[in-house]
């Protein structure tokens, strides 16, 4: 009976892990909707337009600097190639990286919990019958009630975090298009920060569901330790942000707005100079 209960609990844990991976898949499936594809295509065209304007501005800047002996055509060419790669991948790479993180988390959850594996149940029951060793763990009911409440809190917190992750990725793609003006000119600091945010989002998707699943597996033997691991899943975005992998879009949007304003002002200045 102990083995059957343990297997059933493992299937429940596997269900939660599979549920969160399914939610992550919903975030990636968001980009298969026609309306979302239209939005992504709009920002892709916007990125190409800003890249073209930035490339023209970069050529003007190199020409002006070359007159004073400071122009570097090699660096300008490298910046143009970097910009071309960035504008070609900024709508594709984030979605594929997110799908990879979700698939890895799903595979790891199945491996840890043997979700849907009836052979594991049969083997464990036969081992228990062969050894005649059955143990029961007894805990204080008040403590277990407290643990169950905090477990529900941890699961709900991760649930709402996963629920909005696909939308956050869409916002990041939209914001990333505004950096295509500065990349061919050699100003890539903002775009690098944008890349860190995308990586941080995918890393958070993988770690949160994984820590939650491992915590659920530990709870039957060590309730407090398992609960602590489950609650730590909610701290993944904050810790990732401390190491430069910020998952929020607040700072990135402000930086992108400044980049867009600089693009408009520079374009007006060049247009005025050409008219004169």
Task: Please give a structural write-up.
The structure is a single chain. With 276 residues, this protein is an all-alpha fold. The protein contains 11 helices and no strands. The chain has helices at 2-29, 34-67, 73-89, 93-113, 118-131, 141-163, 165-176, 189-218, 223-232, 236-242, 250-275. The longest helix has 34 residues, at 34-67. Mean pLDDT is 74; it is low at 117-136.
Brief descriptors of the model:
single chain; 276 residues; mainly alpha; 80% helix; elongated
Number of helices, where a helix is a run of at least 4 consecutive DSSP H or I residues: 11
Q: What sequence of helices (H) and strands (E) makes up the elements?
A: HHHHHHHHHHH
Please report which band the strand proportion falls in: under 5%, 5-15%, 15-25%, 25-35%, 35-45% or over 45%.
Answer: under 5%
Helix- and strand-based class?
mainly alpha
Distance between the ends: 89 Å
How many β strands by DSSP?
Answer: 0
Mean pLDDT: 74
* Biggest sheet details: none
Helix content: over 70%
What overall geometry do the principal axes of the alpha carbons give?
elongated
Rg to the nearest angstrom? 26 Å
List low-pLDDT spans: 117-136
């Amino acid at each position: 009976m102990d083995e059957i209960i343990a297997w059933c609990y493992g299937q429940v844990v596997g269900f939660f892990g599979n549920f969160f991976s399914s939610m992550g898949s919903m975030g990636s499936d968001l980009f298969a909707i026609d309306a979302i594809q239209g939005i992504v295509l709009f920002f892709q065209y916007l990125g190409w337009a800003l890249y073209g304007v930035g490339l023209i501005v970069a050529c003007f800047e190199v020409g002006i600097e070359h007159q004073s002996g400071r122009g570097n055509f090699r660096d300008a060419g490298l910046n143009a190639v970097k910009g071309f790669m960035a504008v070609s991948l900024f709508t594709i790479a984030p979605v594929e990286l997110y799908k990879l993180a979700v698939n890895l988390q799903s595979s790891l959850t199945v491996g840890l919990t043997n979700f849907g594996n009836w052979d594991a149940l049969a083997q464990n029951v036969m081992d228990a019958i062969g050894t005649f060793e059955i143990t029961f763990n007894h805990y204080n009911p008040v403590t277990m009630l407290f643990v169950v409440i905090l477990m529900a809190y941890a699961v709900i917190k991760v649930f709402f975090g996963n629920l909005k992750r696909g939308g956050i990725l869409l916002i990041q793609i939209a914001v990333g298009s505004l950096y295509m003006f500065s990349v061919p000119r050699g100003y890539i600091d903002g775009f690098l920060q944008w890349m860190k945010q995308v990586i941080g989002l995918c890393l958070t998707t993988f770690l949160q569901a994984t820590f939650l699943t491992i915590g659920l597996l530990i709870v039957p033997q060590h309730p407090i330790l398992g609960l602590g691991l489950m609650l730590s899943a909610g701290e993944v975005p904050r810790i990732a942000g401390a190491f430069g992998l910020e998952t929020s879009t607040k700072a990135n949007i402000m930086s992108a707005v400044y980049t867009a304003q600089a693009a408009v002002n520079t374009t007006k200045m060049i247009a005025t100079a050409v008219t004169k």
